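Is zinc ion placement plausible here? Inputs below.
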Amino acid sequence: MFDRLKIICLVTCISIASCTQYNKNKQVNSLNIAINGDSTYKDTVIVDSHYTFTEAIDGTTAPKEIIKELELIDVEYYSIDGKIHKGQILTNKALVIDLKMIFKFILKSKFTIEHAIPVVKYNWYDDLSMQDNNTYSFCYRNEFFSKHAKGMAIDINPYFNPVHWKVGYEYRQNKPEEAYRDTTINGTFYASHPVVLEFEKLGFFWGHNFKAKFDDHHFEK
Ligand SMILES: [Zn+2]
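Reply from A.M.:
I modeled the complex. Tokens:
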């Protein structure tokens, strides 16, 4: 009897977990309608991230010369609950002015950012950060391969804007794997999206224009 109960509980939990994933985007859609119809501005700001600089670089394998180039900035945005959140971006000092301008634009235009938290929260596994739809800039890795290694790139809402592949590479998986793109969801980019245009105005390269893939969440300098 006890075993049967355990099995029923397990099956129910799995069903609830998969429904939560499935409903995530539906929930965002209805929240976006609520945001757009709401003319009142400031609610209580919800804090997503409040690291010190020392905490934000804790455990990185980056050399000292790179760490010296980094700065931790506070940013505000509307999250998927329709409320203003405060997050943080650990980035290269060379991008600070640009990113502050971009986030001002993002807040004003009510473009949804789910959350922006330095990758230390995910023990430096950027795959986990992407899976969690997290917006981030610095994550040390091969410097020749990725501009994130020096904080010279930013990924925005990777789950809403997954990597998908161009002709000849379609056999490759989207990244994050089960994420799909729906441009009707606030927080999703497309060519001529106002946030994309803001980035391009400031001289950023959009990952959508890479040769083999549409890396839609990625902007770099
Ligand atoms: Zn990226």
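Short version: The two ends are 62 Å apart (CA to CA).
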